[in-house]
Amino acid sequence: MMLPYLALAAILFSIGLFGVLTRRNTIGILMSLELMFNAVNINFVTFNKFIWTDGLVGQMFAIFIVVVAAAEAVVGLAIVLLLYRNWQGIDTDHVSVMKW
Amino acid sequence: MILSSLVAVPLLGMIIVMFLPKDKFNAIRWTSLLISVVPMVVSMWITWDYFFNLSGTSALAYVEGPYDWIPSLNIQYYLGVDGISVPMLFLTGLLSTLSLLASFGINNRVKEYFAFFLLLEAGMMGVFVALDFFLFYVFWEIMLVPMYFLIGVWGGPRKEYAAIKFFLYTLFGSIFMLVAILIMYFTSEPHSLNMVILLDHGPTMSHTLQMVCFIFFFIAFAIKVPVWPFHTWLPDAHVEAPTAVSVILAGVLLKMGTYAMLRISWPMFPQALRDLSFWIAILGVIAIIYGALVSMAQKDLKKLVAYSSVSHMGYCMMALAAFSSVSAIAGCMFQMVSHGLITGALFLLVGVIYDRAHTREIAAFGGLGAKIPVYTGIMVMFSMAALGLPGMSGFVSEFMIFVGAFGALNKVLVGISVLGVVLGATYMLRMVQKIFLGEFNMAKWGGLTDINLREIISVAPLAVLTVAIGVYPKPLTELMTATLENLVSLMAR
Amino acid sequence: MEFKLPDYNLWLMLPELFLFVWALLVFTFDLVTKRKKESAVGYSALLGLLLTGLILALVWTGVLVPGKANGYGSGFGNMFYNDAMALFFKIIFLGAAFMAIGSSFGITRQKIVNHRGEFYGLILLSTVGMMFLSSSNELLSLYIGLELTTIPLFVLAAFFKDNKLSVEAGMKYFVIGAFSSALLLYGLSFLYGLSGTTEIVQMKINLGLVHATIRDIGVILIMGVVMMVAGIGFKLALPPFHQWAPDVYEGSPTPIAAFLSVGSKAAGLVAFAKIFVNGLIVFYDPLQAPNDWGTLVGVIAVLAMVIGNVVAIRQSNIKRMLAYSSIAQAGYIMIGMVSLNEHGLASVGYYIFAYMFANMGAFAAVAIFEDKTGSCQIESYRGLAKSSPFLSVTLAVFLLSLAGIPPLAGFLAKYKVFAAAISMATADADYSWLYWLVGVGLLTAVFSLFYYANVIKQMFFSTEDSPYKIKFALPSLVVLLMGLVGVFWFGIFPEPVLDLASDISAAFGFLPR
Amino acid sequence: MTEYTFLIPLLPLFAFIMIVFFTRWKEMFSALLSIAMILAAWVMSVVILIETLGRIDEPFQWAYKFVNLPNFVLEIGTLVDPLTAVMLVVVTTVGACVEIYSVGYMHNDPRFSRFFAYLSLFLFSMLGLVVANNFFMIFIFWELVGLTSYLLIGFWFEKKSAADACKKAFITTRVGDLGFLVGLFMIGIYFGTFNYGGVFEIAGSGVIPAGILTAAAIFVFCGAVGKSAQWPLHVWLPDAMEGPTPVSALIHAATMVAAGVYLVARSMPLFVTSAEASLVVAIIGLITSFMAASIGLVQNDIKRILAYSTVSQLGYMIMALGLYGYDTAQGHHSPGFYAGTFHLMTHAFFKGLLFLGAGSVIHAVHTNDIQEMGGLARKMKLTAPTFMIASLSIAGIFPLSGFWSKDEIVAAASHYPIFLIGTLAIAFMTAFYMWRLCFLTFFGEPRDQHRFDHAHESPKNMTYPLVFLAVLSICAGWVGLPWIHKGFATFVYHGEAYEPHANYLLMAISLIVGLSGIYLAYLMYYKKSISADAMAEKFKGLYKLLYNKYYFDEIYQKVVIDPVMAFAGLMWKFDANVIDGAVNGTGWLTIKWSDIKEWFDTWIVDGAVNGCGWVVRQGANILRFMQTGSMQFYALFIAVLVVLFGLYKFEVKFLKIGWPTVTIIFILGVTLLALLTRITQIKFKANRRTDGEE
């Protein structure tokens, strides 16, 4: 019963993960991060709906995640802006100066 | 209070020195010297008083505490001395003052030097009076820091290497001690860090744990002694350190290892000691022979003296392995004192010649006996003392060690170690011959001046004590006898 | 129908609320004064922290809490819970923030001319987040606290807008931070799925029941545990989730790096303790559950100590070196964390307390030096002892404390941590794997001395003089002195702190036998 | 007076301390002080000797406990019995003569006072050795005489040969002392006391197993071998002649080297318990004596000849003592003990005289080589006769003192053919080489005219001691005439007093042997009817062997010294490279890694290395490369490690088809995919800018 939903969440999470790990574009990374957060949301809501049906804790959690993710995206985009200001590009390759 | 003052006065002195103006060199020197005289006098008074009033029993004297220091960890402030720590206190007090006197030649960053030196003295005193494991460990480690700086800042050409090597080596040993302390703490019931209480707890631990603790303690202490093969920090540290620091290193720091063995691991783990004493004796014998042979190959005077320490401390280890014999243990204590005096003086004397000649290459000298007779006389005297000439303290200790070890240990092993006596004579006499005898190079060393009054004053007490103990060792034995008998009976458990 | 509000007990939250308001005031103060008053903003932030500390003390002793004898208890619909741990860690957060702000006056004067208010305000906000986190009683508020801690720090890391390194640091911190918080959330969602609650105490009970009945929760729990370890490991900069730390520390403003290394780490510790030591305690032990987290964290602690201490040796930048050092220190802390007895959490508390003084002090010294010279290279400290003896001596003391040389606080901290592990190991042969942690910890502690001593060597052993003569601003001096006094005082007279710390263990139910 | 015996050693010690610290600058005063002290000691010794004559069987003993531990007592004390009393007189007599003589011999030496200080220190040690009442104390003084011997041999330390010789002497005797030390340990362990009386009582009681007794006796004898220059440790004594001649006379002829004999005589109760040990003693004595005498035949250095003569004579005494022990152990009577100690006394006088005479000669001609002398009898009216008296005495010519003592040794050896033949051969050789020396030195034509012209008789303070000692060389033997009943034999004895009886046959044989030796020397070196060169040519191999002293020095150099030094060097290399190297992590490897040197900060190469430093540093290098600088790599790392940790905890039995499995598979797959994608993009750049700031 739950399987499709949880599988959907897993797929979403994996897509997001793949995106974060492989996208060269920082905006793309931001979007992938959002996918991961949303996969979590689906998880929470699914568990609330199918297993722990009394109370709305899971759904509440999902709403909070949406809010926090939005805040995070704002900060992220601001940093991407800084990236653009400094390098005139938003490629991840720019930010690999510090190492070792 | 009196034992606390031994630690507190130098510590206070360090703070005072830190607040003296940086460029008033003489003020700093004399202040530190005067401050260090206080613990010296106190330690001498303790020796005096202990000898006349307290040496009859093995009970701890001048006990302070145990006061709770960190009650939640059962850490106590607990000080006390007995027959094995009193001579060490005496030695520490004396050598610290003499080395401070010998440090008057330091002209670079004087304030820091003397401050560190006083901190060092506080740490050393603390090790010899602490009766709580944690306190002991704290003092044990505290010394490393000033020592690191003293070698690293004021040392010779390879000072940085020597300093970090000394620091890491000793720290490496200490961590084993820490583990052993913690194991003892948590296996004792109620949990305790009080050495006196743990003395009874040790033998009740399981055999495996005893072995583990014994070996861990042994590694920690052996590095300090240093026992072959943990000795490689020693030549570097001794050679690179400034003169006064070498004196302290050889005179006091090395003794802390053997002292700690006698105080802690030997009586606490008698069963493990019995199992391992043969191997300890072997290490001791190796150190004796090996140290002597390596000394023989040295071209640097200071290195020669440094390696001779390895050999001489080997006698201590062999004596400690013969734990069932009072005379061997007494010999070990004698050797600790006499090695402190003799090697301390030798390092001072090496410093004297180095200050003048700016080299320590043995081959660079020759025939100095004619040019600087007083220095030669003193140096020859201490060389003779180092090679165990009767009438000097070194002989008494070696004799007692050999007689004791001969009865308690494998005779072949002790027989081999006796070879060290000849080897000791060989390297010391080679050194004397090459430096003082033979033809004098007028062109090179024509400007050499003899030892001056300040330097004579700094070695004279050592010379007097070396001869005094050699000629009349009775007071020192009587000081320790009761304690040693008690220790031997503890080790026989 | 009568609608009854639950007992909010807002008095318990007074410090957080006060600091939150104060942070907003700092923002506006800077705007109102038209960014003219150079240091006033900073001082006002410091004042705020001091006042918060005062309020915290009053709350704790119950003076400000009507009808209660002390500040313990729950509020806000049981989402907020003050216990010994929460209060203890709040001291650390406040102290870390205080020292971070105190050491950032030079930076704000030189590099952040226009956004001082934001800089200080964000630090305060992040502190608020940490304080919320430490009082959170269930997963949601824990998550909110965590994010409130982290999001201002993203901004702060990238605060030098025109400095490429700073931006790079911000970007890295942000991406890795968001990524790991996603992982954490995914893990939390499984935890919720298993237990059906977000309240940690309830979760503990439910999981115990589930554990007893369903065997195949294993896989789910594995995923949950591993992902949560990853999420919190990021905050703690524990290997293998540590790689952001050196880069971010190097790039971000030095006080922020310091704050990251202490405040953020302490927050991570609280979160870890709450989720794992409290919530998942039934899955600690490999004997009771096949999917335990104890040995996993043990492995991670070993990795942290080894990687941190070993790689630090090769660093030439002192901030990177301190970053690796803080990675290693986290490893030591985790030894205390996996020692589940009355010493374990107490040692964690004392460790982070001692670590705060030493590490913040060291970073403060680095910040002072950087303000003057613009360099963070270890080489440029050469000969500093002659030209600036006080700075050198204090830095040396902090480093020695970090290395664990007695009688400094860092030594007692390590002692406590190892004592905790050994007491656990000697009590029961099943836990003898803790000996390995102790062994690795002690060995790597010796390595650690190597790189700490290297800095000392540069400062003291050089025969030539340093060209730099450092002068201190008053707040920096205060921070250094604070660190110095803390390191010495709490090393020699640690009993009061140890008492407080042992309450943490007691609050988690680890009572002395 | 006997109860004040302890003062006797202290008198010279007082002189030593005074000279070193106070009167060093007043040379003549120092010398006089020193002489006054030894004369006072001499007077006391004579009085003590007279007192002892009255109470032969009740030795006086006084002791003070020096170290007093349970089961371990060390004493300082005095024991005065006839042996002690005789030795005291001998030592103080020769000592006084030598000190007086030295005033003349050493004048103008820059270290004149120091010489007397050292002499006084020596006399202190020697007298202390003599009066000691236990093995521990004798060992202390044993070592101290070694020290003073070292100082005095190296007195002219500017000469390299002297510097080498003193070291050689000290170390060689120390090898023997090593054995003595082991012997002492055995005594300490098995007997529980070091006191002579105690040890001998226990030794005689039969409590101690025979093997232990033998071993202890032989180990004690090792000390004597070193100090008395017995084979195989005899090599130091001839070299010790580098010291000033009075020193040779006092230390290396009359007193210190006799200490070994004294020790054996003193420990005789120990030796008589073990026939084996005694036999070893006797054989070593014979070998030494024979070997040294044969070497003495061909040497040309006047002092070396005397040195080998000393070695030979000491071997003689040792042999006599050994034979006594051997006989007594088997229950026979033997004159050996009495003979040995008797010879010890007479030898001290005539050998002291010989050395002082040689010193006088050297003083006159400034060379040691007898081939450059000749005809000196004409110039040195006092030195030559006294020297010849001594030579007659040592050759065993009736009725000089040497005759009587040597005769008793021959008598002691007479039961054993090998020993008898050996003794007689040695007596023959002794007579030959001594008179070879006399003829070459004092008779014939001067071979170096220049030296001869400048030769002169020595001043009175040098010649008077010669005369005094010459008188003693003649008369000292008469105390042991076999016809008197209360003679030496009934005074110094062990066990029961031995009643000497005149064995006229043996007397005649030994006299004939001595005379024939002198006659041969006369023929070869005075009349030159037998060519010495032709003899040397004829027995070339033997001659070379003897001339090179059986190559002992060379053998020791090759077999002992070189290997030890090489071993020491090896150990040092081992220490520097292997032990330290293992710890340091082979610094040289570090240098070889120059291709990755870019990451080597200066302070590493600087050598700030620690335990396992190398491994750690290399580990650090490897681990550092994980830090690629790419944030996505970091994220990837996290993901991979999450999967790895997951797998680490994963157990197959939980695997069911369900949503958790699906999730895992998805995450696993994606991570792998990402890994593949990213791994190609990671750029491992070797360099980064070193500075963190821009």
Describe the structure.
The complex is a heterotetramer of chains A (100), B (493), C (513) and D (694). Chain A is mainly α. Chain A has 3 helices and no strands. Chain A is elongated. With 493 residues, chain B is mainly α. Chain B has a two-stranded antiparallel ribbon. Chain B is globular and about 75 Å long. Chain C is an all-alpha fold and 513 residues long. Chain C has one domain (10-507). In chain C, α3 (84-102) runs antiparallel to α11 and α13 runs antiparallel to α14. The interface between A and C is large, with 41 and 40 residues.
Summarize the structure.
The complex is a heterotetramer of chains A (100), B (493), C (513) and D (694). Chain A is built from three helices and no strands.
Query: What is the rounded Rg of chain C?
Result: 22 Å
Mean pLDDT of chain A: 88
Strand runs of chain C, count: 2
Q: What summary fits the major beta sheet of chain C?
A: 2 strands, antiparallel
Low-confidence stretches of chain C: none
Query: β content of chain A, as a range?
Result: under 5%
Mean pLDDT of chain C: 87
Order of helices and strands of chain A: HHH
Tell me the major beta sheet of chain A.
Answer: none
Helix content of chain C: over 70%
End-to-end gap of chain C? 51 Å
- Give the total of domains of chain A: 1
The greatest interface here is: B-D, 62 and 57 residues
Descriptive tags:
heterotetramer, A: 100 residues, mainly alpha, Helix Hairpins, B: 493 residues, 76% helix, globular
Compile the SSE list and pairings:
The complex is a heterotetramer of chains A (100), B (493), C (513) and D (694).
Chain A lengths: L2 H20 L3 H25 L6 H31 L13
Chain C lengths: L13 H19 L7 H21 L12 E3 L4 E3 L1 H19 L2 H6 L5 H20 L3 H19 L6 H32 L4 H14 L3 H20 L7 H8 L2 H26 L14 H20 L4 H21 L5 H30 L10 H4 L1 H15 L5 H19 L5 H28 L13 H19 L2 H13 L6
Antiparallel strand pairs in C: 1-2
Helix pairs in contact in C: 1-2, 1-5, 2-3, 2-5, 3-5, 3-11, 3-14, 3-19, 3-20, 5-6, 5-11, 6-7, 6-11, 7-8, 7-9, 7-10, 8-11, 9-11, 10-11, 10-13, 11-13, 11-14, 12-13, 12-18, 13-14, 13-17, 13-18, 14-16, 14-17, 14-19, 14-20, 16-18, 16-19, 17-18, 17-19
Chain D lengths: L6 H17 L3 H27 L6 E10 L2 E9 L1 H24 L6 H20 L3 H19 L6 H32 L4 H10 L4 H18 L8 H4 L5 H10 L3 H9 L1 H4 L3 H22 L5 H28 L6 H30 L17 H13 L5 H13 L3 H26 L6 H6 L5 H16 L12 H4 L12 H24 L4 H7 L1 H8 L4 H33 L2 H6 L9 H4 L7 H12 L6 H19 L9 H21 L15
Antiparallel strand pairs in D: 1-2
